[in-house]
Amino acid sequence: MLVFSVFISGMTTLAVELAASRLLGNVFGTSNLVWANIIGLILLYLTAGYFIGGRWADRSPREATFYQLLCWAAFTVGLIPSASRPILLWAAAGVATLNAPVAGGSFIATLLLFVAPITLLGCVSPFAIRLSTQNVNGLGASAGRIYAISTLGSLVGTFLPVLVLIPTLGTARTYLLFAALLLAVALVGLWRADRKRGLMYSWMPVALIALAAFAGRGPIKPPPAGWELKYETESAYNFIQVVERADGTRYLLLNEGQGLHSVYRPTQLATGGTWDYFLAGPFFNAPPFTPSEVVSLGLVGLAAGTIAKQYTAVFGSIPIDGIEIDPAIVRAGRDYFDMNEPNLNVIVEDGRWALAHSEQTYSVIGVDAYRLPYIPPQLTTAEFFTEARAHLAEKGSLVINVGRTPNDRRLIEAMASTLRAVFPSVHVMDVPETFNSILVATVQPTSPENLLANLLALPPDAHPLLRQSLERAVENLRPTVYADVVFTDDVAPVEQLTNSIVINFVLGEGLQYLK
């Protein structure tokens, strides 16, 4: 029973940590800064638990005490969803309005919810070692056995929530399930050790059942003010929302919801955002470059299909391979964004892996795979761009969406220098009223003047969206500035650079946006 308790507590500990990333990620995002705070404080709480548990076990080396500790650990785990909900709703309002004090305060408050459960769970292993040790000569073997079993439980707790429980049950019910499992083990152990105390703790499962009855009611996170929530789910990769404005425009929101990952308006193809600029990519080629020369498209980061829909409308039913790692996003795209073009081949896979294993050659490869504000590092390196170039036609172009702030373009410059290590020419367009720039790298040597020349040479029957997109692209061309760094698979400090940009923005120029 002691061994089984250690296994379940180890499993619960990692499950709580993994679910914490989703709980906070729904509001604060899933950046490595968020992860670092979660992991760092969880380790701090475990450290306190190891210390307290050892002293506690020496003072009261009884099984009844051990199982009471487990009961309270389980119950406090079960309290996390209910206790966190009002804080997270408050936090969501702060993040939506860029209210830094509210967002920062609620982030700290949410992390404090884990003090009691994780500290108590940290007490389990040293307490179990004390109970399982019959003599000093067996201390090493007992400690090794307990920590091995606890770690094995942690292994199960790492994969089970992410792959099965959170996508199936949601975060709140995942917490309650692990709390119930740990509480059941604790109550059985306590009943065997001290029946009177076992009866005293019988109110805990009743309380958890009551909490479970209310868990999951209402949206996980309210939509932005004035917008209607059409769909909401949690996948193994993302927290997904589909929202709709009063004019019928739908947006795909992921995780904290600051970025708009797809947009759909049945009566209008133009978005005014980053998606439109992907149409300009191939027109940096030497003039005259005509729309008929765009014969295929590969997309790394399909999302809900905005770019695929625009390319189909502008260039006809050309073959499009849309790579998207999250099948839940694909379902949302089909159900709510009319992502049902017959020429679109959806590939549910990691973008780099899928491209490396593709036999196709494309006129354009688009990369739009943000986890705001981060680009996955494996999609920023010279090796990846070399792979992409191998899948481009003779006049092919690669188009990638990259973040910046109004006065900090270091990531743009680093990405430009990395692209320049593989492609002969790189061009930059800023997207107005956003923190985004579109970088275009071409297989052939090209000049920015080609874009205007091809705009002027467009045939009269060219699609109006193409003409409009090229006009905006010409207006927002920027000189290409290169950094001294080139990202490689071995060294790609893109996250470190992005962290620096975000911190400088919040502490400096970003203050004007936080008022």
Tell me about this structure.
The protein is an alpha/beta fold. The protein has two domains: 2-214, Growth Hormone, Chain: A, CATH 1.20.1250; 269-511, Vaccinia Virus protein VP39 (Rossmann fold), CATH 3.40.50.150. 54% of the residues lie in helices and 14% in strands. The protein is built from 18 helices and twelve strands. It has helices at 2-28, 32-59, 63-96, 100-112, 115-132, 139-169, 171-193, 195-200, 203-214, 274-277, 306-315, 327-336, 351-356, 382-390, 410-420, 449-456, 464-475, 494-507; strands spanning 228-234, 239-244, 250-254, 260-264, 297-300, 320-324, 344-348, 362-367, 392-403, 425-430, 436-442, 477-478. The strands form two sheets. The protein has an eight-stranded mixed beta sheet with strand order 7-6-5-8-9-11-10-12, with helices on both faces. Strands 1-2-3-4 form a four-stranded antiparallel beta sheet, with helices on both faces. The protein is elongated and about 90 Å long. The termini are far apart. The model has no long low-confidence stretch (mean pLDDT 88).
Low-pLDDT ranges: none
Mean pLDDT rating:
88
Query: Using only CA atoms, what is the Rg?
Result: 27 Å
According to DSSP, the number of beta strands is 12
Give the ordered list of helices and strands: HHHHHHHHHEEEEHEHEHEHEHEHEEHHEH
Name the quaternary structure: single chain
Q: Judging by the overall fold, what is the CATH architecture of the largest domain?
A: 3-Layer(aba) Sandwich
**Total domain units:** 2
CATH class of the largest domain: Alpha Beta
CATH topology of the largest domain: Rossmann fold
β-sheet strand percentage: 5-15%
Distance linking N and C termini? 56 Å
Number of helices: 18
Indicate the structural class: alpha/beta
Q: Looking at the structure, what is the overall shape?
A: elongated
Roughly how much helix do the residues carry, as a percent range? 40-55%
CATH superfamily of the largest domain: Vaccinia Virus protein VP39
Adjacency order of strands in the biggest sheet: 7-6-5-8-9-11-10-12
Largest β-sheet summary? 8 strands, mixed
